[in-house]
Amino acid sequence: MASPTPPDPNNGAREESNTKGSLVVVGTGIRTVGQLTLEAIAWMKAADSVLYVVGDPVAEGVIKELNPTGAESLTAMYAVGKPRIQTYNEMIDRIITCVRGGSLTCLACYGHPGVFVYPSHEAIRRLRAEGFSARMLPGISSEDCLFADLGIDPGIYGCQSFEATDFLANRRIIDARSSVVLWQIGVLGDATYKTSGYDTSSMPLLIERLLEFYPTSHILYLYEASIFPGCEPRIVPVAIEHLALVPMSAGYTLYIPPAYQTYADLTTSYRMSQLSKSTSPERPY
Q1: Closest C-alpha to 38, from 4, 6, 65
Q2: Which of 31, 157, 191, 213 has its CA 20 to 30 A from that of 15?
Q3: Domain 22-136: top CATH class
């Protein structure tokens, strides 16, 4: 399906909207200042409507400055105690309404707009099914910041990534020889929206599950990226057995380093080398 032509990021000129609406989903990064891409900026300037869900006033101020007349926050759809899925469905309805009305619509979400952002994926799916142009641009997620701040190269040991509640409820399997990232550890088991104090009473169950793979003294890292320039990230090392004792932030991601060494499969390594030799071109002497 054809995508709308991106605007020129150097001039930010507002394009004439087509009679048929379209959707472009962008991410503002975790720290908007420095992590907002030129392409995302250009689309927000060009859009008729910029619907946004961001977590700090700096990001909101940037969006309003980029598009003073079309910026609209969807954050008010959240309410304390309200199921998050209900809020997400209301957001999807609003996005689709704008596009159906003929607007070039830009949805701006903090972080990467496709990482734990159900409304972005579902809005794109529904709009494409109706014949509208809808696409997503990448952004910087908390995992990207985690790799940088903790000095993790996921290519060395491999990296498994799970949403914390999903990991626990669906008995996902961990390879303790690789790195593991558990997203949204600070809202474990709580499907409602709160401004603070999520119910993490399920934490002992998570500890119980982790102890099936790791020793009790294995050190984990609670991580929260900095959202403002000049501020340091929060990094809290904690042993598995003490995880339930640490005050939880809703923004925490849990990083679990490998607990055991990886052992090479010598048979497979030998077979790979033999196959490589057999498929290499003849070298002239």
Answers
A1: 6
A2: 31
A3: alpha beta
Instruction: Identify the CA nearest to 48 among candidates 76, 78, 72, 32.
Output: 72
Q: How far apart are CA 56 and CA 227, in angstroms?
A: 8
Rounded Cα distance, 194 and 226, in Å:
21
Measured in whole angstroms, how far is the alpha carbon of residue 74 from the centre of its chain? 18
Distances (CA, A) of 135 to 138, 160, 236, 260: 10, 27, 37, 41
**Among 120, 63, 119, 110, which residue's Cα sits nearest to residue 225?**
110
Name the 3-class secondary structure at 201. Answer: coil
- Amino acid identity, residue 191? A
Active site residues: 84, 88, 110
Token pair of 190, please?
Answer: 């709580």
Walk along the chain (285 residues) and give the pLDDT tens digit of each residue: 444 555 554 444 344 344 689 999 999 999 998 999 999 999 999 999 999 999 889 999 999 999 999 999 999 999 988 998 999 999 999 999 999 999 999 999 999 999 999 999 999 999 999 999 999 999 999 999 999 999 999 999 999 999 999 999 999 999 999 999 999 999 998 888 877 778 888 999 999 999 999 999 999 999 999 988 889 999 999 999 999 999 999 899 999 999 999 888 899 988 888 887 776 666 554
What count of Cα atoms within 13 Å lies in the side-chain half-sphere of residue 189?
Answer: 12
Task: For the chain, give every domain's residue range.
Answer: 22-136, 142-256
Q: How far apart are CA 59 and CA 73, in angstroms?
A: 11
